[in-house]
Amino acid sequence: MILTQQLILGVLVGGLYGLAAAGLSLTFGVLRVLNVAHGELLMLGGYGTFWLFALWQIDPFLSLLGVGPALFVLGLVLYWMLFQFVVKAHEEARIKNSLLIGFGLTLVFHTLAIRLWTADERAVTTDYAGAVVKIGVFTVPLVRLSSLVLAFAILTALHLFLAKARWGRAIRATAEDWEAAALMGIPVGRTYLLAFALGTALAGIAGGLVSVSYSISPSIGIEWTLKALIVVVLAGLGSLFGSFAGGILLGLAEATSVVFLGGPYREVVGLVLFLIVLLVRPQGLFGDRG
Amino acid sequence: MLEVERLEVSYGALAALHGVSLTIRPGETVALVGPNGAGKSTLLKTIVGLLVPRAGVIRWEGIPVSAEPPHRIIERGVALVPEGRRLFARMTVRENLELGAFAKRAQRERRAQLERVYTIFPRLLERERQLAGSLSGGEQQMLALGRALMGLPRLLLLDEPSLGLAPRVVESIFSVLAELHREGMSLFIVEQNVQAVLTLAQRAYILEGGRIVGEGEGQRLLQDDHVRAAYLGPLARGASS
């Protein structure tokens, strides 16, 4: 019974892992750069939601409509200032250079957040924060359930965009073979820009949901980067729903470990999964790239 | 229509093209033959902007385009069917074709052009919903050619369109190319199948070691001793004797 209750909570947090990972997977899959500052962007999105609520009592779910686009713009700026120079390099060099830039950004955003907002842990506490849905003997926190549903809805919308829209298809084509995409008349630089900004917006939205469902502090960035990385390796590249499923899998694995091994092992289980998948199935559970 | 003047291209320190000059006139079919590693693919990639020349000029209808990115050059009416086809294997046949019409100029005409491509290659219509990666080699080449046609090119560049295909498929691809030529499209074809391409082309250039070492009418080059010895091989000599 404790296990089931934990598993429910595991699914709920897993949806957010999935959302965080989807953004990282998008930038990695399309630009072949690894943005280790992804979690910092998530942290910024969390603070955006938090301050909008703290200062003007704007409902955190509503404020996503502002935080998402704001982070999208931040993504445009970061790409234009930094990452556009990385994607001009060959593929191996891209990863290395993006790691350097990502770690640099991590330090900058982390320090900036401590200076501006102190190292305190914060959370958005709405009137409905304590509301729960009862299913038999189990309780499901309403806010976390809404976050999960919203995360799924956002990924579905993005999936439809990538599947149907002209620029969505351009992003997929570029991810598969950028030279061939260029031969179709697709401005590859602009698809990189768009994919990066979308990835950043996803991080920001995930951060907003984290700030309502859990808590944020300047140091959560690196934790969420790690979670997202584990999920990307777990799920493999190429599918948003794969990322979502991978996130939920990680949430379930963590929940199981909490019940059987105790809380401290929560962080270990993800890394163990990470290693096992890399050894046994390096393309990830749902990945289609060899 | 297309003028290439003293083009120099290098990969890092390695020079690939040394002062290549050539011309393609409107409506003309031109072949480019030469041994492996001569720089044929390099030349095609440079024309569409995937490679940036170290020196020299490429002019499209009088305008220098050698500094432009590929999507600008494609927008001007050039298309390349690359070596190895480079299809989007995880997308459907239909999606591949629609991506071929990404350029603004082609967007407007894409419905009519899709019909046309399906008329030329009915097989693609049958396989419309299949993933490009699941097609046979011949169907993939049809898709690669159809996808390039979706961009409404006035100059079509082809890199080894017959590579790895069965003779019957090669024949049907070449008959489509002949039809496109009759309709007034300019073609520039890199091809190992020298016999077939020189029969189709009005003119041909011979590229060896990054330099143009010969030029002439297709039919005349077919009779040329050097060409026969180097590219048509003992089989052709046997056939003529």
TrEMBL record, chain A:
A molecular-function term among this protein's GO annotations: transmembrane transporter activity
Keyword Cell membrane: yes
Keyword hit for RNA-binding: no
Compartments, as annotated in UniProt: Cell membrane
Keywords: Amino-acid transport, Cell membrane, Membrane, Transmembrane, Transmembrane helix, Transport
Membrane topology term: Multi-pass membrane protein
Transmembrane regions: 6-34, 41-58, 64-87, 99-118, 138-162, 192-216, 228-253, 265-284
GO biological process entries: amino acid transport
Pfam family for this entry, one: BPD_transp_2
Residue ranges that the Swiss-Prot or TrEMBL entry lists as coiled coil: none
Recorded superkingdom: Bacteria
GO cellular component: plasma membrane
Family: Belongs to the binding-protein-dependent transport system permease family. LivHM subfamily.
Name of this chain's protein: ABC transporter integral membrane subunit, branched-chain amino acid transport system permease protein
TrEMBL record, chain B:
Every ABC transporter domain range: 2-234
One GO-annotated biological process of the protein: L-amino acid transport
InterPro entries: AAA+_ATPase, ABC_transporter-like_ATP-bd, ABC_transporter-like_CS, BCAA_Transport_ATP-bd_LivF, P-loop_NTPase
Entries under PROSITE patterns matching the protein: ABC_TRANSPORTER_1, ABC_TRANSPORTER_2
GO MF entries: ATP binding; ATP hydrolysis activity; branched-chain amino acid transmembrane transporter activity
UniProt KW Ribosomal protein keyword: no
Signal peptide coordinates: none
Keywords on record: Amino-acid transport, ATP-binding, Nucleotide-binding, Transport
Family: Belongs to the ABC transporter superfamily.
Protein known as: ABC transporter, branched-chain amino acid transport system ATP-binding protein
